Amino acid sequence: MIPLLILGLLIQNPGAHGYELLSLMEKRHYKYIVNFTKGSFYYNLQQLEEKGLIEQTNDTRPSNGREVNSFKITDSGMEEFEKLMYKYGTKSEYVNLQFYGALLFANEFDKNKLLELIQSQIDQTEARIALLDEYLAITNELSGKVDYFRRMNENSRSHHLVNLKWFKELKAEIEDTTV
């Protein structure tokens, strides 16, 4: 998935350097789409260059006292982008929260500690909703174009609201049985 994100960002931002691309991924909260680290990002950037899917431009710019290389997508990179769009655009996956794994053994776990875990899920989900609300409040619809990233975030917010409701109901149910 990281190669798709890098290629897509280079289509949107030709001539960007690695740090700019990584900053965009962080600023846009792509971590909700795929887990990535600085190291995995730069590894994928290097792999894309070695495969000839992106190339350095002649434009090297100084950044923090050192020269940085700018990149652009190649024709074969555009072909790979299309392949990756089909690959990921046709996938549908189950919702997979790691919390579900812990719930498998909830009956064998101390109820008060379980309530703490559920509260942690509530807190994290509320924080995610707050971030999404912040993003949605500062973005405007693009004129004449569908802003897919905004639509994705609206959908993500809806999912988090459903999860939040479920976590709260689960917590109330457990609290009722421990009284």
TrEMBL record:
* Gene3D superfamilies per UniProt: Winged helix-like DNA-binding domain superfamily/Winged helix DNA-binding domain
SUPFAM superfamilies from the xrefs? Winged helix' DNA-binding domain
Mention any Pfam family matching this sequence: PadR
Provide this UniProt record's keywords sorted from A to Z. Answer: Plasmid
The Transcription regulator PadR N-terminal domain sits at 6-82
What's the protein called, per UniProt?
PadR family transcriptional regulator
